[in-house]
Amino acid sequence: xxxAPVDNRAxxxxxxxxxxxxxxxxxxxxxxxxxxxVTPQGSFVDINNSPRWSTAAAGSxxxxxAAAGATPSEEDVGDKEWIGGAVGxxxxxxxxxxxxxxxxxxxxxxxxxxxxxxxxxxxxxxxxGWKRWWVIALGVLALVALGVGLGVGLTVGRNKxxxxxxxxxxxxxxxxxDGDSxxxxxxxxxxxxxxxxxxxxxxxxxxxxxPACGASLANITRDIHLLSQLTDKIRLYGANCNxxxxxxxxxxxxxxxxxxxxxxxxxxxxxxxxxxxxxxxSALKTYGTERVMGITVxxxxxxxxxxxxxxxxxxxxxxxxxxxxxxxxxxxxxxxRMLPVGTSDAGSLMSTTLAAGIDxxxxxxxxxxxxxxxxQAADWTYxxxxxxxxxxxxxxxxxxxxxxxxxxxxxxxxxxxxxxNGVSGSQGDASIANLQTFxxxxxxxxxxxxxxxxxFEAFDEPWKAQFGGVEPYWGLFDSDRNLKEGIxxxxxxxx
Length: 495
Hints:
Elements: H1 14-18, H2 96-114, H3 120-155, E1 171-177, E2 184-191, E3 201-202, H4 217-227, E4 233-235, H5 243-254, E5 259-264, H6 270-287, E6 292-299, H7 301-307, H8 312-331, E7 341-346, H9 352-356, E8 361-364, H10 374-393, E9 402-407, H11 432-449, E10 453-455
Helix pairs in contact: 2-7, 3-10, 3-11, 4-5, 5-6, 7-8, 10-11
């Protein structure tokens, strides 16, 4: 089996290599340690000895609804290895080692991408393509604005209480209807400042950290009320703390039109993996598959492996074996349909080997970590995603669909030394003004040219303060679910 190596061109940005070096490893999660050392120390589980792996028969695994049981040919797939980073209570897999690796590995390929990637001609052509679609998008928006203006002119005399654009915003209390039963469900107040303009959002519910947990239906329902006014799709990062069932219940109770990508986080904690598999099975058998678009096995698994010194080819082979085994497990659930199974990882780590064994790929593409100025961020994100992910996926027979798993811009930093990504001046600042620029230049243009993406993210996450820098501050809303002052949600349609 061939392996297409990732781009290893050296970064010219020293901050990419030094950003997280001083951050200690996060706290321990049952039997597994996270360590910033090249060879982590602690008690590690051999993930190749999972009881679920033995259910996979030999065979091939590629394409939509991949057949179970593919066993990658890399000879070291059976080696005992640490695939970690997520320990320490982070459902998104963020640890000190993982963040350092994100700065180092993604930074290197990001730097190359930002300077033209495969060549100035290719980058120039793609930029022109992006701008062409952006012009089309502006034209559509102009027509929409004209229609809205006419509508306002006709109705303003009858209703003088229209949205004022104030800090609190206009609200409308709406009783929604469950599309399946026709019964009224939860009534909630809609915010006139919010618009359903985003293709999708990355979402981590509050309090889904092991071992404590503490996620509540009330809090998740509150989040669904807000998210449903911005998008109709979300992706989860794992299944700990019953989050899959809670999210599906909240969607059902709210009567909103939303779908999800369920997820199973993969690291060296085998019991946590088994518990997540069981939780996803229970949720799907309780709520059905109608609102589930796929199941993402692993979040930055390969990136985390590299931070521990494991070669990308080895980590890729191990992950594909895990996915094949999970497909066999899913077949045994006897659901009404087989759900696509994919993975999410750094955008720089897509390979033909990985693409051939998955049903879809979600790629993290962060202009902030690529040391890109905000004036170039939207264009750069599109170009990077096309070359490092879409083009690779399209080069294999099954051509798994790709989406950007995370992209966004932070609004502040815990320290002034980390409040700029390395670009001189305000173009590299973590600020509300720069997040607004990214919203204005990326969202509607991506919708217009058919780029699927999960915006990162809706809400600030204070628990990420343990990782330092900008990590807690990527939300459109603060942690109390208040839309950040100075943020205006773009208005456009999406798929």
